Amino acid sequence: MRHLADCDREGRPEEARALLDEGLELSLATHSTRNVTLCLTAFAQLVFVQGEGERAALLAGAAEGLRQRVGLRAWPLQQQGEAQMVAGIRQALGADRFDQAFAAGIQLNRQQAIAAARDLHSTSTAAS
């Protein structure tokens, strides 16, 4: 995860995205819902810094919805970082737009949430 953070800070979004794709694949292979939610949150952070606030809110909501449905809680250190990210997204979008996108994300099932994260990859690749 440290290498991922370095990619994000150093402006290498495609490398960060590739690491997230790999992490998501490994999380799915091990059937780890906790790790899937970590990946979704990281995808949300990545697209937020790239200016895609609504997608960030959708993915953050998807991570939260998956955790709620299986009875997981974010780790204390993770909670602080997520709260800061969510506050930033809310501020960027405004409360109404944020609430709509986040609520839509909460409603996504695991398969839909994964598809939403993967769609972010294919959309950015298609735009290149």
Brief rundown of the structure:
With 128 residues, the protein is an all-alpha fold. Helices cover 85% and strands 0% of the residues. Helix 1 runs antiparallel to helix 2 and helix 4 (53-70) packs antiparallel against helix 7 (110-127).
Number of DSSP strands?
0
Helices, by number, come to: 7
What low-confidence regions span 5 or more consecutive residues with pLDDT below 50?
1-6, 122-128
Helical residues, percent: over 70%
Shape category: globular
User: How large is the radius of gyration?
Assistant: 13 Å
Topology at a glance:
Blueprint (H helix, E strand, L loop, with lengths): L1 H8 L3 H17 L3 H17 L3 H18 L5 H18 L1 H13 L2 H18 L1
Helix pairs in contact: 1-2, 2-3, 3-4, 3-7, 4-5, 4-6, 4-7, 5-6
Describe this structure in words.
Mean pLDDT is 84; it is low at 1-6 and 122-128. Helix content is 85%, strand content 0%. It has helices spanning 2-9, 13-29, 33-49, 53-70, 76-93, 95-107, 110-127. The chain has one domain. The longest helix has 18 residues, at 53-70. It contains 7 helices and no strands. By secondary structure, the protein is mainly alpha-helical.
